[in-house]
Design goal:
single chain, about 525 residues, alpha+beta, seven-stranded antiparallel β-sheet, six-stranded antiparallel β-sheet, 9 helices, about 35% strand, elongated
Length: about 525
C-alpha cells in the first residue's frame, strides 16, 4: 500500500489560485482604480512641464543645452517623451484593467436589479426616519388603489402585499403598496465609469494610429505634407506613411496685433497667418490660420502654435562671392522676443563662416545693456559674433540649424584682439576683418510654427466626455427613493360595528441627503383628495 506524503498547509498560507484571486480583487477594486487614476494624473505632470520631443523638439534641444547634468537622468526616465514611456503605459494599462474589472461585474448586478421588484413593506413603518399616518373613512382597498394610481406615474410598483393572519399582528383586512424609483442613478454611475474607459480608448487610438509633427515656416515658404518636410515628427505605434493626406500650403503673410499702451503694452492680442492651400490636384483655397482655429484638410489638422523673426542675411566671402543669402529663423528667448540664432555657410572662401548671436526687435540701450523695449520689429538690430574655420559642415554628420559647432573653429577678433561683433540694422553692411568678406542684413521676415497632426480617436474621446457628463449628472441629481403605503381597517368600538381605515405612509431616501417630508405630505394630500 502506497502512502501519499500530504503536508498540511500552514495556517494563513495561500495557494496559487487563492493568491491569484486575491491579486485580482485588489487590482479590480474601486480604491485601486481611483489610486491609478490619481497616478495617471500625476504622471502626466512631467509631460506638461518638461518639453516633449513629439511636441517641440527645438525646446527639448535648448533644455538639454541648458541642463547638461540632468539630461542623462531625464533621458533614462523617458521624461522627454512621457506618454510613450514604459512606466506611463504601465499605469495606463493597469487603469484600463482595473476599470474593466470594476464595471463588468457591476453591470450584471445592475441588470439583475433592474428586473427585481421593489422590496416588501417593512413590518413597522413607524421606525423609519420619515413616516406619517392618518385615519380615513374610505375602505382600505380604495386607499390602496389610490396609492397605486398616484405612485404609478413616477415609481415602480410591487404587487399588493397582504399579510397572512398568522403572526402578522394585524387584521386580515389590510394591505400595502411598495414603490421605488431612482434606478437610473446606478446607471449614471456605471455610465460615468464606462465613459472613462471610452476616453482612454480614444486616447489609445490616437496614440497608436495618429501622428504629430511640427515645422517652422518663414513667410512666403511652402510646405508639402511628406516626412522630409517636418522639423520634428512623432508617429503612433501603428502609423504608416500612407495615412498622410496629400496637400500643400504656403504662408502668404503673417500679422500680429500688439497692445501698444496701457498695462498690457507689449502683449499680443491676436495672431493670423494667411495660407493658400490645395489638396491633391484640387483648386487653391485661402484660409486665415489663427490660434484655436485650425485648418482641417481631410483627416489632418494644422494648428498655429508659435511665431518669431527670421533675419534675411547675406554673407559674401573674401572673393566677393555670395556664400549665403536667405532667412534664418531665430528662436525667442523671452517675452520681449529677444531671439537667438545661428547662420553658417560652407561655401565661403578661404574658410567657412559662422555667425551666432541675438536679434533685438526694438533695440535700445538701458543702463549700458542692450535690450528690446517692445516685441514688435519696430527698430530691429542683429548682434552676432563671427567664427571661421572648420564648422563641421563637411563631415556628413547631421547638425541642428540652431547649433554652431565651434570646436574646430576660431573666433574672429578685431584690431584690439577682442571678439569682433556685428551690430547690423536693416540694410546695413559690415566688412569682416582679415579679408573674410562682408555681412548684410537685408530685412526681417516673420516665421510661424505650425503643428500638423492626425488624431483618429478624438471623436471617441469627445463622446466619452459627453457620456461622462451625462452619467455624472444622473448620479448626482437622481435620488433613489422607496415609498410604502399600508392601509388597514380597524373597529372603532362604537355601536353599529363602525370601521375606520388607518393609513401609514413612510419613505426612505437611499442617497442619504434627501428630505422626504414634502414628498410624503404631497402623497398624503393626493390620497385624501376628494
Amino acid at each position: 500500500m502506497t502512502q501519499t506524503d500530504q503536508r498540511p498547509v500552514e495556517r494563513g498560507e495561500l495557494t496559487a489560485r487563492e493568491l491569484g484571486r486575491w491579486v485580482w480583487r485588489q487590482v479590480t477594486s474601486m480604491r485601486t482604480a481611483l489610486v491609478l487614476l490619481l497616478l495617471l494624473a500625476l504622471a502626466a505632470i512631467p509631460g506638461s512641464v518638461i518639453p516633449q520631443s513629439g511636441v517641440d523638439a527645438l525646446a527639448v534641444t535648448r533644455w538639454k543645452e541648458e541642463h547638461p547634468d540632468l539630461t542623462p537622468i531625464y533621458e533614462k526616465l523617458g521624461l522627454f517623451s512621457v506618454y510613450d514611456s514604459i512606466w506611463f503605459s504601465a499605469i495606463y494599462l493597469l487603469l484600463v484593467l482595473s476599470l474593466v474589472g470594476c464595471i463588468v461585474p457591476r453591470l450584471f448586478v445592475y441588470a439583475k436589479g433592474l428586473r427585481a421588484q421593489p422590496p416588501r413593506t417593512p413590518r413597522n413603518l413607524s421606525r423609519l426616519p420619515d413616516h406619517t399616518s392618518y385615519e380615513t373613512d374610505l375602505p382600505a382597498d380604495e386607499v390602496l388603489a389610490r396609492a397605486r394610481a398616484v405612485l404609478g406615474n413616477r415609481y415602480r410598483l410591487r404587487g399588493l402585499d397582504t399579510p397572512s393572519p398568522s403572526g402578522s399582528g394585524y387584521s386580515t383586512n389590510e394591505g400595502s403598496v411598495s414603490a421605488e424609483r431612482g434606478y437610473l442613478r446606478e446607471a449614471g454611475n456605471l455610465l460615468f465609469h464606462l465613459s472613462v474607459l471610452i476616453v482612454l480608448a480614444g486616447f489609445a487610438i490616437g496614440g497608436l494610429f495618429g501622428y504629430q509633427g511640427g515645422v517652422i515656416l518663414v513667410q512666403g515658404s511652402t510646405f508639402g505634407n511628406n516626412l522630409t518636410q517636418y522639423d520634428d515628427f512623432d508617429p503612433g505605434g501603428l502609423f504608416t506613411p500612407e495615412q498622410l493626406d496629400d496637400f500643400a500650403f504656403t504662408v502668404e503673410d503673417f500679422e500680429v496685433e500688439w497692445l501698444r499702451s496701457g498695462a498690457g503694452a507689449g502683449t499680443a492680442r491676436g495672431f493670423e497667418a494667411g495660407l493658400s492651400y490645395h489638396q491633391g490636384d484640387g483648386p487653391e483655397e485661402r484660409y486665415d490660420l489663427r490660434v484655436n482655429h485650425p485648418l482641417s484638410i481631410g483627416d489632418t489638422d494644422v494648428f498655429l502654435i508659435g511665431h518669431g523673426y527670421a533675419p534675411v542675411i547675406t554673407i559674401r566671402d573674401g572673393e566677393g562671392n555670395i556664400a549665403h543669402t536667405g532667412p534664418a529663423p531665430f528662436l525667442p528667448q523671452d517675452q520681449s522676443f529677444v531671439s537667438f540664432g545661428v547662420v553658417k555657410t560652407a561655401a565661403a572662401e578661404p574658410g567657412q563662416i559662422g555667425l551666432e548671436g541675438l536679434l533685438y526687435p526694438t533695440f535700445r540701450f538701458y543702463d549700458g545693456d542692450p535690450v528690446s523695449v517692445f516685441p514688435d520689429d519696430l527698430d530691429p538690430l542683429v548682434s552676432m559674433l563671427v567664427y571661421t574655420g572648420d564648422l563641421g559642415l563637411d563631415s556628413g554628420a547631421s547638425q541642428s540649424v540652431y547649433v554652431l559647432d565651434k570646436s574646430n573653429a576660431d573666433q574672429v577678433l578685431d584690431e584690439d584682439g577682442k571678439p569682433f561683433r556685428l551690430d547690423l540694422s536693416v540694410g546695413e553692411t559690415i566688412e569682416l576683418p582679415d579679408g573674410l568678406g562682408s555681412v548684410t542684413l537685408e530685412r526681417i521676415d516673420p516665421w510661424v510654427r505650425v503643428q500638423i497632426s492626425q488624431s483618429p480617436g478624438k471623436e471617441v474621446a469627445l463622446g466619452g466626455v459627453i457620456l461622462a457628463l451625462i452619467g455624472l449628472c444622473g448620479s448626482l441629481f437622481i435620488r433613489p427613493r422607496r415609498v410604502w403605503v399600508r392601509a388597514r381597517s380597524v373597529d372603532t368600538g362604537a355601536p353599529g360595528d363602525t370601521m375606520t381605515t388607518v393609513v401609514e405612509v413612510a419613505g426612505l431616501d437611499r442617497s442619504g441627503n434627501g428630505d422626504l417630508d414634502e414628498v410624503l405630505a404631497d402623497l398624503v394630500a393626493a390620497l385624501q383628495k376628494e
